[in-house]
Specification:
The protein has 260 residues and is an alpha/beta fold. 51% of the residues lie in helices and 12% in strands. The chain contains 11 helices and 5 strands, in the order αβαβααααβαβαβααα. It has helices at residues 10-28, 48-60, 83-94, 98-105, 109-115, 129-147, 162-171, 193-205, 220-231, 237-247, 251-258; strands at residues 36-41, 67-72, 150-155, 180-186, 210-214. 38% of the residues are buried. Bound molecules: adenosine-5'-triphosphate and magnesium ion. Residues 48-49, 155-156 line the site of magnesium ion.
Length: 260
């Protein structure tokens, strides 16, 4: 994972760490509404994946305190139904014994197992998407209740296949009473605006357990510090200022410019 210094991101990093710590503490204290939502929104290259990386690292530093479910949507897999949901859930479920999985999935087994790629698709072809969504919700809830707390991380949500997005949009309303923190990152200008609105509404409804961070461009001072750290303290002021103005403070552009 990329561990380079992130300039002017102390607040969103701290927010993630505190939300995770709070989930653990609330669950340990028997709180019945510990669910939280953390959104990292921002333009391409503003540091969303890097921030999710810090959150995942915090979870991995104490693996016994929660289960981490992680998926990253890609433009190439946008046409594969339930691709993101499968990537999210499959690793944790694949570790279980078949009998335990059957017991946990209950009546949803014949729909959920093929949809999650745990068994071959049935002879009748793929189940109808509404049924699959219900099955996935059941499985996610069972995982949270039996093995939670869960940290559920989805990166690049704007590229998620429509079936997974629709499922997540429907499921997000249930998380409040479940032991899970859901963290989603996306290019806010590329996500379907109805889904963006729904997620922001959910953040508000969750009160102090809902967080949305709109990432901003870096200041001239931050770009100057990046340039000097990389190229030496003697990099001149005009050069640093030019790096800021031609990149418009976009961390990805700054990094590309000074690390070539
Ligand atoms: N605050 C920052 N300070 C220094 N470098 C940063 C910062 N934010 C991001 N970077 C660097 O910029 C590059 C892009 O960051 P990252 O991949 O996290 O952006 P992103 O928002 O996920 O982009 P995309 O929308 O393309 O997925 C990385 O090399 C990362 O290390
Ligand atoms: Mg990214």
């Amino acid at each position: 994972m990329d561990e380079r210094q992130l300039y002017e991101r102390e607040e969103p990093i701290g927010l993630g760490a505190r939300a995770l710590a709070r989930l653990r503490a609330d669950v340990a204290a028997g709180d019945t509404s510990p669910g939280g939502l953390l959104l990292y929104r921002g333009a391409a290259g503003f540091g969303k994946t890097s921030l999710l990386g810090r959150l995942r690292a915090a979870a991995n530093a104490d693996r016994d305190s929660q289960i981490l479910l992680y998926a990253r949507a890609t433009e190439q897999q946008q046409g594969a139904p339930f691709h993101v949901a499968r990537n999210l859930l499959q690793p944790a479920l694949a570790k279980m014994h078949e009998a335990d999985r059957r017991e946990m999935f209950g009546g949803w087994y014949d729909i959920a197992a093929p949809a999650l790629g745990l068994t071959p698709a049935g002879a009748g072809g793929p189940a109808d998407p509404t049924g699959v969504q219900e099955a996935l919700s059941w499985v996610m809830t069972q995982l949270a209740v039996r093995q939670g707390p869960l940290l559920v991380v989805v990166d690049d949500l704007h590229w998620a296949d429509p079936e997974s997005s629709q499922w997540l949009a429907g499921y997000i309303g249930q998380i409040q009473h479940l032991p899970m923190l859901v963290s989603l990152a996306y290019r806010s200008d590329e996500l379907d605006s109805a889904l963006d609105d729904l997620l922001l509404r959910e953040v508000r409804e969750l009160g102090t357990r809902g967080h949305s961070v709109e990432l901003q461009k870096l200041s001239p001072n931050a770009v100057e510090a990046m340039v000097r750290t990389r190229l030496g303290e003697d990099a001149d002021d005009v050069f640093c200022r030019t790096c800021w103005s031609i990149t418009n403070g976009n961390p990805f552009f700054v990094t590309s410019l000074i690390e070539r």
